[in-house]
Amino acid sequence: MNVGAVHPEEVRVLSVPRIPLPAHPRVKQLARQVGLLNADTGGLTAGYGVIVRLDCAKNLRLLAHESVHVAQYERLGRERFLQEYIQQIAGHGYLNAPFEQEAEAKAIKACRDLSLASIRSESPKIHCNEGARFMTMASKNDKRGW
Predict the structure, then answer these.
(1) CA distance linking residue 8 with residue 120, whole number of Å
(2) What's the domain count of the chain?
(3) Is residue 118 predicted with pLDDT exceeding 70?
(4) Is residue 66, in this structure, part of any structural domain at all?
């Protein structure tokens, strides 16, 4: 399942008990101001690095969502992505930020497409969990299949 990353083979996923605050000072400040990171945060993307909560590590929808953020980083570069992302959240709120809307729409479509493909091939249906909210900023070792 590739949702637009040019170099999905570069993506690395790290599973952790909880998502840490970002290191970037402006992003950290914004995260605190708008409650971007909380106990429900399932994932965080920074370039080709994706951090996911341990209990979300097999959530295909989350992984697809975070992969869309990888593609956004590739399109804009780190600084432009972060600047635009911060502006979007400040102006629209997290859930209505265009990057989040794009990531969620593409993740849902990818999961639906994957489910349809699995039905057609008569393999077991893959379930895409709708659970945790997915945050951006930044375990599988190889993402070539995305």
Answers:
(1) 25
(2) 1
(3) no
(4) yes
